[in-house]
């Protein structure tokens, strides 16, 4: 057993800095590279891609990234865990396998694929057997939106990823695994943590939570003394140095920008936390009130004292469904009376939409520069504001009504208040709304599978 391993985060979401994983691999010693690509809406996008092309449905960016870093990862024995597989992990693995062979890595690399999270084709069977998959927020049964479901994926935990690592996989590709599981799995594998070692599993979970959003814990999007954070243009992504006892240090490569300190780590800890006593994952329940942080040197924070509780008997299911259409249009009004002009334009637009008999579930207006960020807390906007952006969005079930709204913005330029600009981008686009349906499913209904093959 190694005394310490280093797990680096290279992506906090699909669309994060493209060169961050490369810099993590090349910037210093790491043992694992964790790449987090998935969000709830991402799954529905990938499901639509797969419906059009059975070989699609995964994070395409992952494949060229592997082309760039695989030789170094093999040479330096850096193992990769990534949920880039989306709704089609096998196809993602096939694409990476092709790249590995092109790079001459045949016989030198094992790929792990974790499946079992996608239950889209099981929905009717589950409902027919009385599993209602009720919405965790509203209590409604899933049957109320059955015909509109676009994707359904269970949040798998770290254990199947750890199993693939145990079987020699150097790259493990998953579908909808938890963000934290991508970091916890290497710790389970390296340190031999038992499936009921709740304190250590909670520690690994919190380690994963701290680095799952990339540079958000190393200076990016940080409120505390943000003006003094050095060189965010070259921000260093976080690394966890973990020990077998469950303690760990959060750090980053030397010579990179950003900052890792107690405030930056604390800000990430409270991100999407919910009840601090019960941070529930498939692997355990972590108690955030037990976390202790201390400075351990420049850009080093030691995390210790973490307690955990037994895992529940359920997995969380991320379900997306079609919920109508939306469009958002903007115009910018200039001084003088910029805010007053924007307000008048909003009233004119609403009156015209009503005259046309258009029905929407919601019409929402923001006055950017006046109240869009802080709402009522902003107080009364200054009458001397140099410019205000009028931003109006509509949402409804009738695509034609939303389409007509998009044609009513531009006429305000010549038929509304004066001094308007900002419409060079053309008419707003109508977009389909994808809504989120969280539910619970008994773990006995799900069979995660880990397969490992040689390139």
Structure, described:
The protein is α+β, with helices and mostly antiparallel strands. Helix content is 28%, strand content 25%. The chain has two domains: 271 residues, no CATH class; 116 residues, 2-Layer Sandwich (Alpha-Beta Plaits), CATH 3.30.70. It is built from twelve helices and 19 strands. A ten-stranded mixed β-sheet has the order 11-12-8-7-1-2-3-6-4-19, with helices on both faces. Strands 5, 14, 15, 16, 17 and 18 form a six-stranded antiparallel β-sheet that branches. It has a three-stranded antiparallel β-sheet with strand order 9-10-13, covered by helices on one side. Strand 9 and strand 10 form a beta hairpin. The two termini are 27 Å apart.
Which structural category do the helix and sheet elements fall into? alpha+beta
Straight-line N-to-C gap: 27 Å
Largest sheet: 10 strands, mixed
Q: What's the rounded overall pLDDT mean?
A: 95
β-strand amount:
25-35%
Supply the number of helical segments.
Answer: 12
Helix-strand blueprint:
Elements: E1 5-11, H1 20-26, E2 32-35, H2 40-52, H3 62-76, E3 79-82, H4 89-102, E4 110-115, H5 123-128, E5 149-154, H6 159-166, E6 171-174, H7 181-191, H8 198-211, E7 238-242, E8 248-252, H9 262-269, E9 279-280, E10 285-287, E11 292-295, E12 301-304, E13 307-309, E14 314-334, H10 338-355, E15 362-368, E16 387-396, H11 399-406, H12 412-415, E17 420-421, E18 431-442, E19 449-454
């Amino acid at each position: 057993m190694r005394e310490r391993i280093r797990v680096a985060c290279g992506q906090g979401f699909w669309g994060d800095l493209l060169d961050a994983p490369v810099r993590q691999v090349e910037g210093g010693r790491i043992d694992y590279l964790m790449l987090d690509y998935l969000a709830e809406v991402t799954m529905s996008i990938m499901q639509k891609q797969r419906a059009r092309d059975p070989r699609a449905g995964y994070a395409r960016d992952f494949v060229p990234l592997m082309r760039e870093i695989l030789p170094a990862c093999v040479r330096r024995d850096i193992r990769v865990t990534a949920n880039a597989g989306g709704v089609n992990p096998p196809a993602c693995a096939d694409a990476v396998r092709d790249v590995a062979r092109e790079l001459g890595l045949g016989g030198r690399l094992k790929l792990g694929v974790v499946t079992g999270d996608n239950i889209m084709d099981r929905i009717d069977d589950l409902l027919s057997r009385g599993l209602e998959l009720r919405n965790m927020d509203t209590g409604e049964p899933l049957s109320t939106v059955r015909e509109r479901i676009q994707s359904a994926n269970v949040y798998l935990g770290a254990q199947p990823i750890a199993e693939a690592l145990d079987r020699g996989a150097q790259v493990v590709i998953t579908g909808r695994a938890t963000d934290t599981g991508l970091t916890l799995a290497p710790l389970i594998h390296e340190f031999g943590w038992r499936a009921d070692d709740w304190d250590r599993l909670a520690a690994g979970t919190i380690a994963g939570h701290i680095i799952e959003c990339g540079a958000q814990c190393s200076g990016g999007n940080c409120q505390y003394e943000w003006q003094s954070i050095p060189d965010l243009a070259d921000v260093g992504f976080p690394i966890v140095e973990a020990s077998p006892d469950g303690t760990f240090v959060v750090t980053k490569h030397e010579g990179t920008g950003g900052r890792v300190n107690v405030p930056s780590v604390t800000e990430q800890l409270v991100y999407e936390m919910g009840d601090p006593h019960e941070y529930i994952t498939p692997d355990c329940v972590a108690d955030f009130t037990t976390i202790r942080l201390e400075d351990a040197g420049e850009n080093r924070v030691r995390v210790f004292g973490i307690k955990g509780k037994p895992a529940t008997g359920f997995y969380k299911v991320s379900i997306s469904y079609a919920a109508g259409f939306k469009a958002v249009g903007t115009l910018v009004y200039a001084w003088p009376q910029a805010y007053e002009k924007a307000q008048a334009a909003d009233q004119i637009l609403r009156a015209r939409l009503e005259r046309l008999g258009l029905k929407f579930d919601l019409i929402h207006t923001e006055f950017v520069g006046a109240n869009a960020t802080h709402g009522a807390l902003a107080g009364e906007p200054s009458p001397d504001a140099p410019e205000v952006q009028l931003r109006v969005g509509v949402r409804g079930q009738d695509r034609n009504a939303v389409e007509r709204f998009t044609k009513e913005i531009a006429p305000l330029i010549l038929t509304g208040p004066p001094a308007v600009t900002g419409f060079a981008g053309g008419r707003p686009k109508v977009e389909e709304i994808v809504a989120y349906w969280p539910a619970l499913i008994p773990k006995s209904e799900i069979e995660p599978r880990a397969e490992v093959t040689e390139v």
